[in-house]
């Protein structure tokens, strides 16, 4: 790829870049944005990076393809002199034969109506039917100038040059309109129907357009329209839904009135016969011998000067712009011709020109010469043959304290402004620039800032620190702020008290800068950077690179002059409109190739069968005509597996061991989204139906096995529980058998007591109460559970008997929670009576005072309740002492029996009973508390 500069900079593509031939017939751009080149050696599809060539090897009937048309279904129809014609779609070539076998078609006047293509020659027109090209019958009116038309009313158009007229024929072969041409019509070189309503003729001098719907005829000459007497190879085409006229030297878009809008004239030296304006307003030029030329839109308004010359620094002196050119000297800009003209010829390295206004002197220094301009007179001193063989005055000059100071290779010169002689030298290596600021003479060096003061050069500190970075140039932003430009460390803003780096300049080499009001323009090794002041900071605005038309990204200097940007490079100077905006050359991102192992995945073949150790390889490409762009950056994710975007610049994506599923690869780049879908079908044993059958069968088998195991375990468990329950019931019956005689024994003692005291009435009354109690006892003992009301009745009976025995020294009290449904709640039979009996016999019996028994029933939960039995007897400790000191005639087992019975009840799982006995405060009485929870 090489550049050929006339007024603009063109990019040239030839066989060296991948074209099969430098002979280009025409250019097309399809709906996706690909640019197609039609050559005598095949067709070429270009995406901005790669040339994809189609020849007979890919299936073309021959390689000499000179015309193409695009249909909305993304088919690129090709035309050549052949017995077969067709189209290219998705990089596959399709061709269809002439219905008359072997007959060659010569489609030089081919028509397009919608998506229908009609190859048309001087005498025949064809349409595709049943995959063959069939001839279309002409009208009954015979004429050599007949043009075939596809229209609902018009059948054909007859051109009669001898009569200087055009006749329009309808479907009934009748002339419905005759158009008289205003002057003798020269031989028409190209004619065709370009859509469903427009028919066109074009020659080297004019073009005509007939509206088939209104029959309005438009006749426009190139001379009247654009001032050209002749446009060779002129043609009208539809490009991206616009009519474009092109020929040698010019290309333009036609407006709604078919006038040439904003015609672009390209240099004759290019020798282009056809041009195309693409979607991004880039102009593509076809030549017969030198391939393709490209001119992006951003370069159309640019001008290039001193191309292929190493240009240096700018100087604005008396509103005139000067620059330097290596080995050529100093050049001055001509505002009329817009070119730089030689001003001072110097065959060596020239330094930046300097104006010393205080002494009305302009200095043009170079390596060997020292030239001054004063009062319009140039004076040059040549030191090439004088030791040390170089210009001793130096390369950069400023006025300071009524003297001129300059930098030379080894330090600083003080120069007498009157006679231009060196008065004194001050040694300092690595000096790059001088500037006066705040009454100081500041030097930019390769090791920071230095200050010249009273004959001494010392480091200039900022925030009490040395600036050790290599400073190339210094620019004055204001009377209080400087801009320091470094070699490899960016740019810094300082007021000599504080310092701050400009954003996005890290590690940039900034050769120089231009300050324009509140804007800063930097000349860097990566292009031009613009900043604008925002309050107390500078905000990055934009970056200009070769994609905006710069000859190079390495910028030596920059200046704004006449509202234009002048940028100096090692390849000349470019002049850019200051408000130039770029148009993105990125058009699309797409899948170039997709492979499943060795099988191609396409839109027509997107379903593949699963294979073990599979690999999906996808090649991602873009349509991007930006010459400065590197590998594109894009984000991707493969659904349904990936849900987070992954950013990459790789052109190939690989996915391994993908299971059967429907997949969609999503791509995003430069705001453009693309999806690519494919399906991996499962093998028979991977199908959903098989998996469902296998899973269901496995579950049923597992359930069957578990049920068998559970049934067996439940049988064992039930048998064990039944055995335990029977054992518990036997033990409970045995206990009740023990408890009943125990109670009878105590009761008979009481009756005997009354008889011995000869209290017959009391003994009878006691006996009646006792008989009732015995009856209840026998009644209740037959049941495992009785109601709480029955248990309370039994206890009242018993306590009434005990009250008769103790007399006034004994009393009892029942406290029953109103929320308890005592007539429904169950309790194990005969459980509380032995506890109450113990409270009477072992608690109150030894009490010297008046004894009382309190029995409390209260609800704790839905079917749960608590029973408290309280006495004010001697207490547990005292009762134990009395028991130990007494003569044992009977061993009481009631407490053990109660605990054992409770344990057995809990073991039966029907009840959960807690039993607690404790001494009341002050060792006065005992509390027995039972909590009942029924598990039934």
Q: Can you walk me through this structure?
A:
This protein is an alpha+beta fold and 936 residues long. Among the domains are: 48 residues, no CATH class; 206 residues, YVTN repeat-like/Quinoprotein amine dehydrogenase (Methylamine Dehydrogenase, Chain H, 7 Propeller), CATH 2.130.10.10; 97 residues, Immunoglobulins (Immunoglobulin-like, Sandwich), CATH 2.60.40; 218 residues, Histidine kinase-like ATPase, C-terminal domain (Heat Shock Protein 90, 2-Layer Sandwich). 16% of the residues lie in helices and 44% in strands. The strands form 20 sheets. It has a 5-stranded antiparallel beta sheet, with no helix packed on it. It has a 5-stranded mixed beta sheet with strand order 62-68-67-64-65, with no helix packed on it. Helix 3 runs antiparallel to helix 4 and helix 4 runs parallel beside helix 5. The chain starts with a strand and ends with a strand.
Widest beta sheet: strand line-up? 1-2-29-28-27
Q: Please give the number of β-strands.
A: 75
Mean pLDDT: 89
CATH topology of the domain at 717-934, by name, is Heat Shock Protein 90
Q: What percentage of amino acids are in beta strands?
A: 35-45%
CATH superfamily membership of the domain at 717-934? Histidine kinase-like ATPase, C-terminal domain
- What are the segments in which pLDDT stays under 50 over at least 5 consecutive residues? 1-5
Q: What is the CATH architecture descriptor of the domain at 717-934?
A: 2-Layer Sandwich
Organism: Lutibacter oricola
Transmembrane segments: 683-707
Keywords: Membrane, Transmembrane, Transmembrane helix
Protein name: Two component regulator propeller
């Amino acid at each position: 790829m090489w550049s050929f500069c006339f007024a603009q900079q063109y990019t040239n593509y030839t066989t060296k870049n991948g074209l099969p031939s430098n002979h280009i017939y025409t250019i097309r751009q399809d709906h996706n944005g690909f640019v197609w080149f039609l050559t005598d050696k095949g067709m070429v599809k270009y995406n901005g990076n790669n040339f994809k060539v189609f020849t007979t090897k890919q299936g073309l009937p021959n390689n000499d393809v000179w015309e193409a048309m695009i249909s909305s279904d993304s088919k690129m129809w090709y035309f050549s002199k052949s017995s077969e014609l067709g189209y290219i779609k998705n990089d596959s070539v399709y061709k269809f034969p002439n219905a008359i076998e072997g007959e060659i078609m010569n489609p030089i006047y081919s028509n397009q109506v919608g998506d229908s293509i009609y190859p048309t020659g001087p005498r025949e027109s064809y349409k595709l039917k049943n995959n063959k090209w069939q001839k279309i019958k002409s009208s009954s009116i015979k004429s050599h100038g007949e043009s075939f038309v596809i229209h609902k009313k018009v059948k054909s158009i007859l051109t009669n040059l001898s009569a200087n007229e055009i006749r329009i024929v309808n479907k009934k072969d009748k002339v419905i309109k005759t158009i008289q041409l205003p002057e003798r019509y020269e031989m028409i070189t190209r004619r065709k129907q370009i859509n469903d309503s427009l028919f066109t003729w074009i020659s080297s001098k004019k073009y005509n357009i007939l509206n088939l719907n209104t029959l309005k005829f438009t006749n426009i000459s190139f001379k009247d329209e654009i001032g050209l007497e002749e446009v060779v190879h002129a043609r009208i085409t539809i490009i991206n839904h616009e009519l474009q006229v092109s020929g040698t030297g010019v290309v333009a878009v036609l407006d709604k009135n078919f006038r040439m809008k904003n015609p672009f004239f390209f240099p004759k030296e290019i020798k282009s016969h056809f041009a195309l304006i693409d979607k991004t307003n880039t102009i593509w030029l076809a030549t017969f011998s030198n391939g393709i030329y490209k001119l992006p839109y951003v370069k159309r308004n640019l001008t290039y000067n001193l191309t292929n010359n190493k240009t240096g620094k700018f100087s604005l002196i008396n509103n005139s712009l000067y620059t330097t050119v290596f080995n050529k000297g100093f050049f001055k800009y001509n505002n009329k011709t817009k070119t730089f003209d030689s001003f001072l010829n110097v065959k060596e390295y020239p330094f930046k020109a300097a104006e010393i206004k205080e002494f009305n002197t302009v200095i043009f220094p170079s390596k060997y010469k020292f030239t001054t301009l004063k009062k319009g007179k140039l004076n040059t001193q040549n030191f090439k043959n004088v030791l040390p063989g170089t210009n001793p005055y130096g390369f950069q000059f400023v006025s300071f304290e009524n003297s001129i100071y300059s930098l030379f290779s080894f330090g600083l010169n003080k120069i007498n402004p009157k006679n231009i002689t060196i008065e004194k030298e001050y040694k300092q290596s690595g000096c790059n620039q001088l500037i006066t600021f705040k009454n100081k003479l500041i030097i930019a060096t390769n090791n920071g800032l230095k200050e010249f003061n009273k004959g001494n050069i010392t480091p200039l500190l900022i925030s009490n620190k040395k600036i050790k970075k290599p400073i190339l140039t210094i620019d004055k932003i204001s009377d209080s702020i400087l801009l320091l430009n470094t070699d490899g460390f960016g740019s810094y803003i300082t007021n000599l008290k504080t310092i701050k780096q400009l954003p996005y300049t890290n590690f940039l080499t900034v050769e120089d800068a231009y300050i324009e009001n509140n804007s800063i323009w930097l000349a860097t090794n990566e292009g031009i950077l613009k900043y604008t002041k925002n309050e107390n900071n500078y905000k990055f605005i934009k970056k200009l690179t070769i994609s905006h038309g710069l000859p190079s990204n390495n910028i030596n200097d920059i200046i704004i002059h006449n509202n234009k940007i002048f940028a100096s490079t090692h390849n000349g100077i470019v002049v850019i409109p200051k408000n130039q905006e770029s148009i993105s050359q990125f058009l699309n991102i797409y899948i170039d190739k997709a492979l499943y192992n060795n099988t191609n995945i396409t839109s027509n073949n997107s379903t593949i069968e699963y294979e073990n150790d599979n690999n999906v390889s996808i090649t991602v490409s873009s349509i991007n005509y930006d010459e400065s762009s590197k590998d594109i950056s894009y984000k991707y994710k493969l659904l349904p597996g990936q849900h987070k975007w992954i950013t990459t610049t790789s052109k190939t994506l690989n996915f391994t061991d993908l299971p059967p599923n429907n997949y969609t690869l999503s791509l995003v780049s430069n705001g453009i989204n693309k999806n690519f879908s494919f399906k991996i079908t499962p093998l028979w044993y991977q199908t959903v139906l098989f998996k469902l059958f296998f899973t269901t069968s496995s579950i049923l088998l597992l359930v069957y096995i578990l049920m068998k195991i559970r049934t067996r375990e439940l049988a064992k468990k039930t048998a064990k529980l039944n055995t335990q329950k029977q054992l518990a019931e036997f033990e409970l019956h045995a206990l009740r058998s023990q408890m009943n005689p125990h109670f009878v024994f105590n009761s008979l003692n009481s009756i005997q007591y009354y008889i011995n005291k000869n209290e017959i009435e009391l003994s009878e009354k006691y006996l009646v109460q006792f008989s009732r109690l015995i009856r209840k006892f026998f009644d209740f003992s037959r049941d495992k559970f009785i109601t709480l009301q029955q248990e309370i009745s039994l206890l009242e009976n018993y306590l009434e008997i005990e009250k008769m025995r103790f007399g006034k020294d004994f009393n009892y009290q029942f406290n029953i929670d109103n929320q308890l449904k005592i007539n429904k709640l169950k309790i194990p039979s005969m459980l509380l009576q032995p506890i109450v009996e113990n409270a009477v016999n072992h608690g109150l019996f030894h009490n010297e005072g008046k004894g009382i028994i309190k029995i409390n029933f209260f609800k704790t939960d839905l079917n749960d309740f608590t029973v408290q039995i309280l006495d004010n007897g001697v207490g547990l400790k005292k009762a134990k002492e009395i028991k130990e000191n007494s003569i044992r005639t009977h061993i009481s087992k009631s407490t053990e029996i109660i605990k054992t019975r409770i344990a057995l009840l809990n073991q039966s799982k029907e009840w959960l009973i807690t039993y607690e006995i404790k001494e009341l405060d002050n060792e006065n009485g005992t509390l027995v508390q039972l909590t009942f929870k029924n598990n039934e």
